[in-house]
Design a protein that fits this description.
129 residues; alpha+beta; OB fold (Dihydrolipoamide Acetyltransferase, E2P); six-stranded antiparallel beta sheet; three-stranded antiparallel beta sheet; 4 helices
Length: 129
């Protein structure tokens, strides 16, 4: 269910690193917890983001939830299509609903992020509590 080439945060964001750039989105688990997404607010191109800091919001019929950047750097691209089609987050969270691309200012903290297998185990433990 969770792409093996991605890394995952405890805040339920996914990350795909390519060279000195990272693509970020929210996980399938996160979108299921939110319910039907109706609005998304993303950072602007050129904004600086810091690992572990809030950088946007996702609003659903149930709640508003913050998006946390799993990496530090400068936003070089945002998925502007999500403004018109926020439902993509529910339909394809690990694909066309990517949220931002970040030029890394420091190496991605892969040692603090989980593999797909570790993330699935994290979800099992979290739901057992």
């Amino acid at each position: 269910m969770y792409p093996a080439q991605f890394r995952y945060s405890e805040e339920h964001e996914w990350l795909q690193v390519e060279d000195n750039s990272a693509t970020v989105g929210i996980t399938d688990h996160a979108q299921k917890e939110l319910g039907d997404v109706v609005f998304v607010e993303l950072p602007k191109v050129g904004d600086k983001v810091e690992a572990g800091q809030a950088c946007g919001t996702v609003e659903s019929v149930k709640a508003v939830s913050e998006i946390y950047s799993p990496v530090s750097g400068e936003v070089k691209e945002v998925n502007t299509a999500l403004a018109e089609t926020p439902e993509w987050i529910n339909q394809d969270p690990h694909g066309k609903a990517w949220m931002m691309k970040v030029a890394l200012s420091a190496p991605a903290p892969l040692d603090r992020l989980m593999t797909a297998e570790q993330y699935e185990e994290y979800l099992r433990k979290e739901s057992a509590e």
